Each structure stands twice: as structure tokens, then as C-alpha cells.
Amino acid sequence: MNMSMRQSNNYVWSVTELIGQGATGNVFICRSKKNGKAYAAKVFNSMGQMRNSIVRTREIELSKKLVHRNVVTLVAEEREMSTKSTVLIMELCETSLYHVLEYPENYYGLSETEFKSVLRDVVHGMKYLRENNVVHRDVKPGNILLTKSPTGRSVYKLSDFGAARQLQDADQSFISIYGTEEYLHPDVYERAIMKNFDKKKFTATVDLWSMGVTFYHAATGQLPFRPYGGRQNKETMFEIISKKAPKIISGVQKANGGPIEYSNDLPDETRISKGLKNLLRPIFQELLETSGEGLEKIITFDQLYVKVEEIAAMKVIDVFCTSTSTWHKIYMKEEDSLIELQVAIAKQTGVKTKDQLLFLSSERLKPSEFRRINSLPVIDKENPLVLVGVDANACTDLYQRRIPPLPKIPGGKSRAEGDIDVLKLYSSICCVYEFSAKDFYFSLRATYQVFETMRNLLNNIVESIADLSHNIKGQRQLADHIEFIAYEELNHIKRIWQKVIHNGAHDNLKGNAPSEHHCDEEQLLNIKSVLEEASLACSHERSETLSIEPLSNAKEWLDEIKILSHNVNEIYSHIVKEKPIGQIGMNLDELIYTAKKQQITESLEKIGETFGFLAEARRHCHVEFNSWQRRIGLKLVEYSHIEASLKRSISSDSYSKKMDSISTQKKAMLDDLENFLESNVNGKAGRPHASNTSLSIMEKEVSSLESLLHEIVALVDEGDKKLLSSREIVEKLSQSNSQTLQNSA
Fold this sequence. Notes:
745 residues, alpha+beta, Phosphorylase Kinase, domain 1, Transferase(Phosphotransferase), domain 1, Ubiquitin-like (UB roll), 4 domains, 17 helices, 19 strands, 53% helix
């Protein structure tokens, strides 16, 4: 067999395929002799073999018992054939969280999505351990492994149970000390590192502190508690973690003997949004409490699980604020209303709810207390919720993410390891440029979209106002015409009666002259003035565009930055894998190494130049749009209110009442005519005061009157139909503009 190959009864591996190292053993990629499937083989070294057999057995037995999605699975226990060393065969994972945090793109912490995966998976795994009364005692990024689900989602798993212990019950205490310095609970640190051997006992809550430090590291890319000089400065480290005030989640000493800078919040540079920070802050503060004043504030495992599950269940809404050209992630519960969304947006952006115009998918979104968050579609940077503030006095300062300054790469015959940290920073800054460039591009795109949406909406509102005002005038004229006809015929009937009835004795119908019902000229003149002004504004806005570089240019700049950033990261990875050790001599390796450093420098300079073009386009677009929307935003609101007022007017019952009055008089008129005919035609004997000649005339007039009556009925019914048609027109207009009415209400 090849000298590098090792094997057990059922598995084989090469010592060249090392994927992990620890104090008690090394981890290699191995394969099953039966089916060739890949696994991870943890081979105990001499120190691991000399470790207390009880402790080693405890690790193996615990690993066999623990079966959970977020715990690394132990497949088998084997013996290496030549050395007889214990070998643990485990499921194979891609890498550890520690190595993920070493990637240049994670220099300032994981992306928000990836961090939430770490948070939820680790909490789920620790909850499972807690339910089985297991304390891990060495929670840290190196003991959290990454694998991928069939759908490509990151899945993080707890591993390495060499320090773990199963307690008799959840609250059992212990005095043995395990763990890694930077992640140790202050009480454990005091005994293990400061050698203060008091009789203090520990509980499973020591894992909570280690989780807090791990989560902070994942969110920011840095440890929360950092004395100058690192772990060598033990006294200062102990001072930072043991004497910090309640709610403090980080403490950093930047100079030898210098002050300690404490903070109760995550740093600005992190890739975590303000929305998620607001939810994480109290969790970090409660995880990183120890004793004394903050003792009652320490979170429990159950409380932590509930809070993390609440975050995972929330709907994330990407909001672009045009006032400051910033992106915000708003975390909302599915059952929250859109009114509550408005309040949350106001808290994060500073734009008051009354000044908010919200646009989604080229339409205005009208907040309602009856509409729920779960009714909204997916809202991300590809399809954001755009916020336009209409307060003319609001702040419109352009937000700019800070990009760290570039350190100088040492030249000449330098030690390669001394360059690695600087080259890593260069590579990470390329990633910061890329992240910012993506935000800038999406900002430009969202601004263009909302510009077109507002312009179209303004034009639609003005057209609606014109239609409504025309309909109001037509409706009033129609009502006046119908009323005039009705009263003219009524008076005609009365004149006939005067001929038929002697001395006008029967004045049964009290027909009055039609009243003057003219349009409210003052209101129509006001509407006309508004229409002229609005039409002029719309004509101007239709011809106006944002005078900035085309969006296609921004996409080209973004793509160029992506390519250059990828190249820099590739070069950096190659240098890390093949870095020379010690002083570099004048040889081919040095020349290649120097050339690669030069490539990184030149690429970063080109990225900076291209980023400058994109940043200037964003700045100019921001200024142009906010200048435009100051003029148009208020007019949009004003015209929306006018439109809503006209719709309320046209849908009111003032004209209906007038027509109802005419219909009532028509019915009374018909009833009186029928009574007259019945009493004077069928009952002639009941009219002794009428002469025969008069009765003869009456019969002719009655015959004529019956014909006329049918004409009147048809005429008034036609008026009713016209009125109904008018109402239908109003109703259709209201339906066609219902969305606009909701927006402007």
C-alpha cells in the first residue's frame, strides 16, 4: 500500500487528505471499503490515546447516542490497523464555521441569511443537547461544521464531544474545566486561565456564554472581547469579561495599556441589517451576562429557542428609502397589519407615517389595518418596497457605507506570512466594494422604477379628475333637463284642466315652476384651474427624465467590479495555499509571488476607479430624484385628495334626491289624474254643475288627456332611465379608479 495510506477494517484514508486538526487527533477524508462512500475519520494521536480512558469512552458513547439534524453523526468506531489508534468514522461535512469566517468576504461577518442559518441551527442543536442533559463545554466556530442540504441550504452541525458530559439532570453542577480561552465563561476562565482555584461550581449555562461569543464572531468576523496583544494578555482579558457592565456585548483594547472601548451593540461594519440588529441586540446582551447585577437577565435555553424561532418565522421586507438612498430590512410577523408595517418603517428610516408614499411593483401601496403582512408577495431587492417621503423639510443626506483604508503591502524580501493578513484585508475590501456596488446598482434601478411609477400615477390622476369633472357637469345638466321636462308637462296638464273644469275649481295638482338647478360654477372653475395646472405639470413631467447615466452603464460597472473582485480572491486563495515559509530569496517563487501581489494591487485600484463611476451616478441620481419628487410628491398627494373629493361628490345622493322628488310628484300627478277620470267619466251624474257641452268637451279632452298621460309616463320613465344610466356611468368610473381612490383617501 502507498506509504501515505492508512486503513481500518472497513475504511481507508490518505494522510495527505487532512481536513482538520485538534489537540487530541487529526481528521481525514476516508472512504468505505464496501461502497466507496466518503466519510470523515478522526484518528486519535498519542495525546488522545494517553487521555483518560474514561473521558475518551465518554466522548464515544455520547456521540453514539446523539442523533439530530444539527449534530454530526457518528457512523462507526474503528481501529487503525498499524497503530491500533482509535478511529471515529463520522459523516463528512464541507468545512467548519471557523474556516467560513476566514473567507475574505466574511471579514466583517457572515451575510444576514447565512448568519440566521448559523443562529437557528446551533440553537436547535444545543436545545437537543439540553433535552438530553448534555453540556458541550467547547462551543466555538471550529466545532460547528457546515454541510449542504439537497436544496443547497447551509446546515450547521455541532461536533467534537471530547469535552462534553452528560449530567444527571439539567441543573447539575460540575467543577471540571474544558474549552477554548476566547470562548470561556468568565467563571471558567478565572479557574482555568487565571488559576484561581476557588470552590465555585459551574452549570450548563456556561454553554450560553460560549454561544454568545460564537454568534458575535459569526455576525461581525471578530471576537467580542479583545485585549491588546490577544490571548497573551490574560489579565486584561479577565478584566474585560468579568468587570463589564450589564448589557455590554463587546470590549476592545486598541493600544498597550490603553482604555477598553465597550459597546452594547453590533458594529456598523457588519453585514447584518439594522432590522435584524434590533432583534439580536437583547439576545446578545442576555447571552453575555454572567452574575451580579445582571444575573436575573441571563437568558435560559428555552427562552433563547423561542426568540430565535420567532425571528425565523418573521417575513423580511426589503425597503428602499429614496430620501437617503438606503436599504432597510423590516422584520414583521405574518399577522401584523400594513399600518404596523408603516410604523416599523418610520422607526427605522425616520420618515413619519403621514409623509410616507409606498410603492410596490409599479403601484402605490395603501396601508390598511385590515390587510396583513402574509398577503404581500416576496419583497426583496429584486422587487422592493420603495419609500418616498413627501416632507419637503426632511433630511435627504446621501448615506455612504465606509470602506476601510488600504494598508501598504510590504515590498522587497519580506516574509510571506507577514503579508497574508494585509493581502486578506485587500481581498476583503474588494468584497466590501462589491457588496456596496450591488446596493448602488439596485438603488439606481429602484429610483428609476419609482420615478416612472410616480409620473404615470400623476398622469392617471389628472385624467381621472378631468373625467370626473366632466361627468359632474353632465350629470347636473341631465338632472336639470329631466326636471324641466317633467314640470313643463305638469303645467300643460293643468292648462287642460282649466278648459275642462269650470272656473278652475279643481286645482288638485299643485304643480310648481321648475327650480333653477345650475352647476356650481365656482367649484367647476376651481376644478378647471386645477386641471390646467395639473395638465401643464404632467406635460412637463412626461417629457422629463432623470438626467443620469443609463442603467445599462451601472450594470456594466457592477459586472466589472464582480469580475475583478473574484480575480483578487482567487489570487489570494492561491497565495494562502502555496505561501513560502521564511525569507524569500531571489528565485522564481519570489518573482511569481511579487507579481501576484502586484496583480492584487492593480485590480483593487481598478475596482476603486470603477466604483467611483457607480458612486457618482448614484449621487447624481439621488440629487436629481429628490429635487424632482419635492415638486411632484406634494402635488401627487394634493391631486389625489382632489380626485377623492370629486368621487365622493359624484357618488353622493344629492342628484338622486332631486330625481326621487320628481318621481314622487309624478306618482302623485298620475294618481290624481286617475281619480279625476274615474269620477268625471264613469260618474257623470256626480257632476251636476257641468253642462252637456262642457261634458262633451271634457270627454274629448279626457281622451286627449289619456294619450298625453301615456306620453308623460314614457317621458318621465325615459328620464329615470337616463338618471340610471348616469348613475351607472358614475359607478363604472368609481370602479375603474378604485385603486387610485384607495391610494388618495
